[in-house]
Amino acid sequence: LEICEFSGYKIYPSRGRLYVTSDSKTHRFLSSKTESLFKQRKNNRSLLWTVMYRKVNNKGVKGEVAKKRSRRAVKYNRAVVGASWDTINARRSETTAVRAEAVAKAKASRKDEAAKRKARVAQKSN
Fold first, then answer.
1. What does the pLDDT look like over 95-124, one tens digit per residue?
2. pTM for this prediction
3. How far apart are CA 94 and CA 103, in angstroms?
4. d(CA 20, CA 88)
5. Cβ–Cβ < 8 Å for 46, 29
6. Distances from the Cα of 69 to the Cα of 11, 65, 66, 78, 105, angstroms
């Protein structure tokens, strides 16, 4: 039994075609169809019915290969630079009212600092 160079199928006795190139290399083909496609320089990896396509695209080997296991990502509770885990948890459990109050307090302190800076700058210029 020979194997077709293009399709990868078996060539039984008294079947197939033999093609010899000018550099005296021999190519065996199953049929005129495979010979024609070879001469047109078609890629056997892109023709769905060839053995080569099936190998490249993993067709027909589902029974042999076991299903791959996917690993689940494990979540960790970690601290971030500048904030411990307890601080982060406390922030999460705050209510919106408490958060709004803290924001208002921070804004007020910024305004006071800006006013003090302006007073210092005005005092230096005098």
1. 888 888 989 999 999 999 999 998 888 888
2. 0.48
3. 13
4. 77
5. no
6. 40, 12, 9, 27, 52
